[in-house]
Amino acid sequence: MPEASHAATRGADAYRESLVQLGAEGHLVGTLVQPTGPSTSVGVLFVNAGVIHRIGPHRIHVKLGRALAQDGVPSLRLDLTGLGDSGRAGGTDGMLAQVRRDIRAALDLLAERTGLSRFVIIGICSGAEYGYQYALDDERVAGLVMVDGYSFGNRRTRMLRYLLRLRTLTWPVLKNAVLGRLARLRAGGGQPETPVDYGLPVLTVTDFGEGLAERARRGCPCYLVFTGSVLQRYNHASQFDDVMRAAPLSAEDRSAIARDVQSVFLPDIDHTMTTLHGQRVYTRHVRQWLAKRLA
Known about the structure:
By secondary structure, this protein is of the alpha/beta class. The protein is built from 9 helices and 9 strands. It has a 9-stranded mixed sheet, sandwiched between helices. The longest helix is centred in the middle third of the chain and has 20 residues, at 95-114.
């Protein structure tokens, strides 16, 4: 695939975008965004949100990547194997292993094109969890931004969840819920809903806490963003801190988390960044975190 590029300018700010092909099999496609001015010491890799093309939900990866370019941060929007414009690969050792190869190839290209050696991985949903799983494989990963990724609740989470349900409870909703429950009981309970399998391991709260601490000790701070679309599992600003405080973690792990892991609850934006307001809020938070933590 020949490389295509164009430059765009907004006022005094400029960036250059290039379509790139990468990977050992040449099947991966991405969009490289480079500032035309001086670059920072850190680059960014965007991975797919679920099965959405590399532009991200409502083009949020495009908008955030271009905004970061104004801050001097180069980035690559990557389509993982089999998603968006990227083709299939010949590997047969599982999805997570292939994702790891894809991310490594993307960081290799970023390093080659930018001369940088430190990179932040930004992902939404399964993309956040892929970044988390990869981080310990590569010392070049200098940070993670995880949107609606792993989360764990507590008693307050459950209480607020029930209150949210009561708020929206109407007679038609109650009637349909009762009738649906009776129908499932008559049918023998029905089949349980099958969760989407992204090839990711299941973590306990202790696993997650220890994992965050280990990544922090290796120079990989984490920024956990939770939106108003996941209120059933994350619904108050102090939830992450409260859950980690109650988890059976060592004093060393707690210290690492307190120093290098930050969480933010943004109830006025949704999981797919639908509104322009939500996009601006999310973009502002990520830019501020990057500027503060990774300068």
